[in-house]
Specification:
The chain is α/β, with parallel strands linked by helices. The protein has two domains: 133 residues, Rossmann fold, CATH 3.40.50; 77 residues, Orthogonal Bundle (Arc Repressor Mutant, subunit A). It is built from eleven helices and six strands. The protein has a six-stranded parallel beta sheet with strand order 2-1-3-4-5-6, with helices on both faces. The relative contact order is 0.11.
Length: 229
Amino acid sequence: MSGTAVRASTLIRTLIVDDHAVVRSGYARYLEEAGGFQIVGEAATAADAYAMYRRLTPDIVIMDVMLPGASGIDASRRILEMDPAARILIFSMYSQPVLMRQALDVGVLGALTKDSAPEVLCEAAMTVARGQKYLGGALARLMIFSQHTPARHLFEQLPPREFEICRLLLNGSTIDEIAQALNLSSKTVANRLSMLRQRLNVSSDIQLVKLAASAGLVPWIKQPGNVQI
C-alpha cells in the first residue's frame, strides 16, 4: 500500500524524524497513547528519513527541520519527488518565515512549532494524514504580519536545492561537506554556489552572511557546540 492514502478504521502509520532520540521517543509515546497513531519508524537524519519512507511507506511523516547534514526540508523534497502525494508535517522549534516558506514550497502539507500544545500536534498530524493543509496559528500570524524585507524575498525565491546549499554554507560547512551531505559532487556544489551568489547579488560569503542576517535567517544558524544564536 502507498503511504499516501490513510486507510479507514486503521491507525495512522507514522514516521518520526528528529535528531534527538529522547524527543522522538517522547513524541512516539504521546501519539500512541493519544490514540489513532502507530509509530512505524524513527529517523535521525535526512538520508535515513528518505530510506525509511521508501521501505515503510508511512501514512504521514512528522519532520524536524534542523537535522545533521541535509535538513528536513531537503528530506521532504526528496520524499515528495519520489512520492508527490506524500503527507509531511514539519514540526520544528524554528519559526523564521523564510524557513517555513521554503518548507511549504517543496510541498509539505503542514507546519507547526514545537512550543505548541501536545493536543495541537495530534490535531495537525490527523489533518495532514487526511491530505489537508495545516499551518499552526502562531506560524500563520507570523508569516502574514512579519515584515517582508527585500532580503527575505530573495531567500524565499531561491530554488530548494540552492537554499539548502546556502543553509549549509551559513552553518559553516565546506564545499566538500555540503557535497557529501547532499550527495552531490564538489564541482556541482561550487557551480550552484556561484549561481546562488548571482541570484542574491553578493560577491563574497561575508556579504552573504550579512544578507542572511537582514533576512532574519541568522537565529537558526547552528554555531560550534550546537549553541543557537
